């Protein structure tokens, strides 16, 4: 169709209105690519599909597609050796979760309406892959923004040791800052952090009374942030444990990414089908 005709029809305005109605980024992409078709069979097929969806929409409470986003870039990166982060893995999990909700919903409709045939929707639903194992793997290991402690025995052990060591550090530093003899020597009776080390704020004139490492000072120079010698080795232990934690975390993410790569084709198919369904009004 000629561009002038599209302008007369205000086709871009129509697309903008449709964009406001769809729920997911997947459907928005399809709307942006939308062009009129002059092929009779294509138009008939799309009208039949729309009719089927309209019938279901008018009779049932349809599961929401809210929260779906494009995962194709993540999946492609997984297949070439990149490592996905927790947020990217959760986006893939959300795709699987929504497709499973729709499969359950649709199967229930088919069971309830045995005499009704949704030919176009049947074709779409039959394409949806089984991705339960991948979903469970991500679900069991990934919280909303980090890995669960229980993502592996090793990670749980490391984080437990970090927690216990930090508690030991806090106990020792609390003893220092709460000591009656130290009250006048501190700018504030608190434990704070500088350069990822636990420190106490010491008035500059009392520097010689505290054996330890100066990590920072206030803008005025009147307060020094000192890591007391008594906790230096404990802080070193925490640093080593943090490094171990990062290594284990990376290993788990790489393992999950490999599982995504193994199901890459299935995930891409799921994204295609779900985007198509949202585009048509689900």
Automatic annotation (TrEMBL):
One of its GO terms (biological process) is mismatch repair. This is Recombination and DNA strand exchange inhibitor protein. SUPFAM superfamilies: DNA repair protein MutS, domain III. InterPro entries: DNA_mismatch_repair_MutS_sf, MutS. It comes from the Bacteria. One of its GO terms (molecular function) is ATP-dependent DNA damage sensor activity. It comes from Staphylococcus schleiferi.
């Amino acid at each position: 169709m000629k561009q002038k005709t599209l302008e007369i029809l205000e086709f871009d305005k129509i697309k903008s209105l449709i964009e406001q109605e769809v729920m997911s980024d997947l459907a928005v992409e399809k709307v942006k690519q939308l062009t009129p078709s002059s092929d009779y069979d294509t138009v008939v097929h799309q009208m039949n599909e729309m009719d089927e969806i309209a019938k279901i929409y008018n009779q049932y409470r349809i599961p929401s597609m809210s929260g779906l986003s494009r995962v194709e870039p993540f999946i492609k990166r997984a297949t070439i050796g990149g490592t996905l982060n927790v947020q990217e893995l959760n986006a893939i999990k959300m795709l699987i979760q929504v497709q499973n909700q729709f499969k359950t919903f649709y199967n229930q409709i088919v069971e309830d309406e045995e005499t009704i045939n949704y030919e176009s929707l049947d074709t779409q639903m039959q394409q949806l892959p089984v991705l339960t194992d991948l979903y469970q793997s991500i679900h069991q290991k990934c919280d909303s923004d980090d890995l669960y402690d229980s993502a592996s025995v090793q990670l749980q052990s490391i984080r437990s040791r970090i927690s216990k060591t930090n508690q030991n550090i806090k106990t020792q530093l609390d003893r220092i800052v709460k000591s009656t003899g130290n009250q006048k020597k501190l700018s504030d009776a608190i434990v704070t952090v500088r350069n990822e080390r636990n420190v106490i704020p010491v008035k500059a004139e009392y520097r010689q009374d505290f054996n330890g490492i100066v990590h920072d000072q206030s803008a005025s120079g009147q307060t020094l942030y000192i890591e007391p010698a008594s906790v230096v080795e404990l802080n070193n232990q925490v640093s080593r444990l943090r490094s171990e934690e990062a290594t284990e975390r990376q290993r788990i993410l790489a393992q999950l990414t490999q599982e995504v790569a193994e199901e890459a084709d299935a995930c891409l198919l799921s994204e295609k089908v779900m985007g198509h369904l949202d585009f048509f009004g689900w």
